[in-house]
Amino acid sequence: MTRTVAITSEKGGVGKSTLAVHLAGAAQEQGLRPLLIDEDGRVGSSLRWAARTGGLPFDVLAAEDVKPKKLAGYDLVVLDTEGRPKRKELRQLAERADLLLVPSGVSPLELDATRELIDFLHAEGAARKTRVALTRVPPVGHAAEDAREGLRDDGFTVCNAVVRQYAAFGRAAELGVLVRDVPVPRADLAWTDVTALARELW
Hints:
This protein is α/β, with parallel strands linked by helices. The chain has helices at residues 16-29, 45-53, 68-71, 87-96, 108-123, 143-153, 167-175, 187-201, and strands spanning 3-7, 34-38, 59-62, 76-80, 99-104, 130-134. Strand 2 (34-38), helix 2 and strand 3 form a beta-alpha-beta unit. The chain is globular and about 40 Å long.
């Protein structure tokens, strides 16, 4: 059965599309057949990423190009949702996704926005399917540990794996490839972060 993972956030700049592209790539490396659907019609970051070189090893489609019958051929559907979705859209997302993944930075403002979104999703009965993934984490220091502990104290489910902030991710977006395929320092560490998160999610 096809599993649907929706990546959503009410805060910009948390690496939502970067996470969507790379989790789909990690799934493909694990032997799954993923489909990445770009639902952000205004920006279309995932589609733009894929269009640069055609170097992504999985299918990327715009939401309007998805046919229900096609979905049966995939093991995993990753939804790169619209940035700052409306509450009505979040309710619909909570109904159709098997997992809601909320990427969050570790600054106080980012964590406050994450708490507000998770509170809403919990109120909609989606607590069991909601996870927080800490992203754009400074490679040094204890910011991730502090943020994870604070969110868990509030009763939220937070992934153990974190995705640290490396310039290699930006270079991957420029080239239209996965970070594992970028010949720059620390690209291997960036990819390790992604694969560790993927193993935790499925």
